[in-house]
Amino acid sequence: MKETNKAPAPDLMDKIVALSKRRGFIYRGSEIYGGLAGTWDYAHYGVALKNNVKAIWWKRFVTDREDIYGMDAAILMNQKTWQASGHVSGFSDPLVECKKCKQRFRADHVKKVPADPVEHGLIGKALELKGSIAYWECEDCGTTNVVNTRQFNMMFKTNVGAVEDDDSISYLRPETAQGMFVNFKNIVDSFHPKLPFGMAQIGKAFRNEIAPRDFLFRSREFEQMEIEYFVKPAGWEKSFEDFRKEMHAFVGDVGLDDKKVHELEVPDGERAHYSKRTIDFEFDYPFGKKELYGLAYRTDFDLSAHAGMSKANLEYYDEETKERYIPHVIEPSFGVDRTVLAILSNAYTEDEMGGEKRTYLKLAPSVAPVKVAVFPLLKNKPELIKKAREVYEALKKEPAFGGAVEFDDNGNIGKRYRRQDEIGTPYCVTVDFDTIEKGAGVTVRDRDSGKQERVPENELSKYLSKHHTI
RNA sequence: GCGAGAUUAGUUUAACGGUAAAAUAACAGUUUUCCAAACUGUGGUCACGGGUUCGACUCCCGUAUCUCGCACCA
To answer: How many angstroms separate the CA of A32 from the C1' of B57?
Structure first.
């Protein structure tokens, strides 16, 4: 996951953050206290957008299929979970810092050297450290330092129950995956699925990032959508390829431009040690090409680790071959917040309309927080308002729009169009004098082109639904 | 966590050791027969704590937070 592109438009991110706040999508966490780095609060429209993303995902990967079971596991898990997964040991890298040039290195990577404490002026420090006297040489400036590691643990630690001791330690989960692995046996016992089958979960995860950056991209609290798909050890490649295609299909579902999504085959040596193959799906964010989704073949690493730690029997009995074995797993992993960020940056558009600069979100109707807005042409004509409210209330009840319909009579018509443009509403419906005097129907205005079409009232719902996939 | 910078209205930005301001956005009203019009009115601001001073938004110190860079990202 290296940054390969420099930001093409350095201020685009700022504009997206500003719009998100101005229009009620996303605020900084704990803002009245000056904020809390790495946290973001979703407001009305942001929640709607995010919920749409999650609903579309759940539909494609759970309800539209027969072979994937839904899960919503607890965020707090028995600490042994994280010992088995390797997070307790692997998630914290001991670091050392050069006292002179302040460069930092992983403690297990630095070159250990013999040194005379007096000669290097380290005697006081060495005495403080008593038994653990070791030295290393900075590869940048050559300074000899005492090995003095600092622990960086990425997991948020907490205590479960009233007593704070080692046995009560737990962590806010740093990934959702383990909640599924530990329930593998339960799902097998409840549903008796045949391989291949999977489990899917949407939920929050927490990582104590040293430096959260880039709006929603790297935050300390975030949401994941993950699938663990269990397969026979032989022939995992087919499922891997199937999910690779499904992931691109999902990208289309939420209206992202697939041309901005690039597959990166993660080479040997850069993959996690348990993975035999990993593809990163990278997206062209305003700040560069960075990871959006991941697809990994994790072998039987996780289930085997849990079987070893828990002594549970996590083998699958294959009735065809009469064999018992631990299934292997394909893991498609999606970041919810990263999807929202990708959608916002993909959708943010500026153009000119009516000689004025216009900002709008070119959201796919499937993810738009408001599907349609209804206006009276003028707000000081009660008959227009009455009719517009009728049209609005009818649409509000239409299942096709899920209630994502707004009424607005504030300011003038142009102002209302611009407001809806900024939140990405695909269609605005206006009631004018011809509607009530001639029964000529309403006008439907398209967000992207600004073009209007007159549609009879009784065909309005059908006309709008035709353009929506929800 | 280190280094640098920043913090004045929802937003963008002024000014000043002595009553804090503009634009824009918001809200209400008038008006308006389709793209941020106009008019009238309204509300809203010096991050926090200490010090110097007759008096601090302004100067000094500290704290917090944010931003950028470094490092980190199983």
So the answer is: 19
